[in-house]
Amino acid sequence: MAVQYETLQAGQIRLLEILQDDGLSGQLRTMDLNNTPKYAALSYTWGPPSAPDAEKHPVTINGVSVETQENLHLALRQLGITVRQHGGLIWIDYLCINQRDLDERGSQVAMMKEIFEGATVIYAWVGLPSDREEARLAVELMYSFNKMLHEGLKAHDDNMIAVTAEIGPDSVGYPRGSEPDNAKGWQGIAEIFRRPYWSRTWIYQEATTPGRIWFVVGNKSFNDIHLSATVYTGREFARFPEFAEQFRDVVGETSPVWRLSTARTWREQKPSGHPLLSLMGSLRMTHCMDPRDKLYAALDLASDVDPGDFLIDYKRSLADLYIDAVRFSLRKQQYPFAFLEYVHIPASDSTHRDLNATYEPAMASWVPDWRQKIMLRSFAAPNLEYADVPSLPYDASKGTEPNLVIRGLELHVLGYCFDKIEDVFPIWDESNTELSTPQSWSQIVRRSYPKITEQACCRTLVADLRTKDVATGKGKALLRGGAVEWALITADSSSLGVGSRSRQDYMMQVLVGMCHGRRMGVTEGRKLGIFPAAAARGDVVAIFHGGLVPCVLRHAGRDGQYSFIGECYVDGMMDGEASEAGGKDDPARIDIVLI
Questions:
Q1: 56: exposed, middle or buried (Cβ count in 10 Å: 0-12, 13-18, 19+)
Q2: Residue 23 burial (CB < 10 Å; 0-12/13-18/19+)?
Q3: Are 456 and 507 found together in one domain?
Q4: Both 83 and 169 in a single domain?
Q5: Quick check: is 268 in a domain?
Q6: Is 273 a member of any domain?
Q7: Are residues 67 and 195 in the same domain?
Q8: Residue 304's CB: how many other CB atoms inside 10 A?
Q9: Closest Cα partner for 105 from 113, 116, 94?
Q10: Residues 325 and 374 in one domain
């Protein structure tokens, strides 16, 4: 027998009243969202559907036994008494939404931002710890890191640079052989931070909600301030070689926990939100059961989405929905080609699973497939996370106006082809031992093309973007005219001062950000470039009218039809040098159909 859900009217939600301390019995109550008593909201991981012969995890709702997944069952058991002590009401999507009614599901999802913002407290259920003692020590370390940073800021008049300079192997919580509890606590932190919870798509809306949030691990909990302090301290510890790699991985800038902590800070600093495409880009590395949620989870947080722009409809086809995101971009983005920076074509020769992964149904080559778990830094707008720098540093099509239109599954653009790829080199990814150091790529290129200068390689590796002097604040980040400084890149970071260490870190972010998941190559015109991972010999290098950067195309089908491979950087061709070949009467100016 299933729970009988009464029809919700506009603006209504259901709250679950927990009736027993074990959390496994409750009554659904229908209320107007703008007139509810105090309630909590639960953020958690659904997990995969249970196998038919798996252990059952029933809860009683409105007197009816309801099967739940194990993780929700554990969360209810752990949090039941706490919720009852604070009013007894909690919102849980799986139980409070009629999951069989796709129309209700869509309308309730559209209200999730208001539901979580209306909660008195959010409980984020991370799961049961595999080792209770490690979890206890982990949470104690998190509290101590927050205390250390708080006391440091107080002692140094809120000067974070001074506080950072004091963080090192002698700091509280650093894992050393003489401090076994610290090492064990960091083992617990690593285990907690590897949990699936941190990679959920919807937590970017749920767990970034301003206000009270507690991350619960078994019977231990920590809040967002403790989380931020741990990530910050861990990143500073990671500068020292004896800090174990397994600990670096869970607090580094590619870790889900770091991304969530940063997203929470961004939301607090900019409540109006960020552009939809940028948010969807942030969600690429997350996991959801329905890939439509890669769009739907970002809508309420987007600064450029207006009522009526999207209807949350779980009956829409995925391909149509993702094309709708492109149509939205064309209407709302100042730069009409902004969506192309999120396109990634799988590279069959890559050893990295996220670079060669394919999905069904397949998208048109020019449509970003948001299911792909890939983060590539944009050439056209490489510095979105920095507010004090120009966001559009190149102008490859100088003097031309954009001309593009969607016709069914085709994108029609005006542009010109100015070169072809003659040679490509190995893809830069974590599993490629040929590129274990930044210099390796430069050495491989120059062995094959000795006439290409070291200066050209150094300039190309950072896409001609110069990093600022963080210590003095002089200059602006990512100004043009940059190059890799090998002496700084290869220096032992633990021996550098705070300013040089920050600048080294900043330069490495630019270098890896521009090169990761891409390959270097040389064109027939002997131009060095950074190309998409899927680029191959014979691919065309083109510029679209109104485009800021060149792109790589591949002939497909009839004349004028191409597959879009990706954006690229070509040394010496980023400031309109090729646009002279695209004049009004020049035969190189063509109508390009992307399929």
A1: exposed
A2: buried
A3: yes
A4: no
A5: no
A6: no
A7: no
A8: 18
A9: 94
A10: yes
At residue 471 the predicted structure's pLDDT band, cuts being 50, 70 and 90, is: very low
Q: Is 60 helix (H, G, I), strand (E, B) or coil?
A: strand
Q: Are residues 440 and 565 in the same domain?
A: yes
Our measurement of the distance from residue 354's CA atom to the centroid of its chain's CA atoms, rounded to an integer in Å, reads 14
Half-sphere exposure of 294 (CA within 13 A, CB side): 24
Under a CB-based contact definition with an 8 Å cutoff, are residues 383 and 389 in contact? yes
Domain boundary among 66, 85, 119: 119
Helix (H), strand (E) at residue 160: helix 160-165
Domain for residue 250, yes or no? yes
Q: For 524-578, how does the pLDDT look when each residue is reduced to its tens digit (9 = 90+)?
A: 999 999 999 999 999 999 999 999 999 999 999 788 899 999 999 999 999 999 8
214 touches 78 (CB < 8 A): no
Q: What is the pLDDT of residues 120-152, one digit of tens each?
A: 999 999 999 999 999 999 999 999 999 999 999
Domain total of the chain: 3
Q: Which domain holds residue 426?
A: 302-595
Whether residue 45 lies inside any domain: the answer is yes
106 shares a domain with 142: no
Give bridge partners of residue 405 from the DSSP assignment. Answer: 412
Q: Is 59 helix (H, G, I), strand (E, B) or coil?
A: strand
Whether this prediction's pTM lies above 0.85 is answered by yes
Residues 535/493, Cβ–Cβ less than 8 Å: no
The three-point CA angle 405-410-411 to 5° equals 35
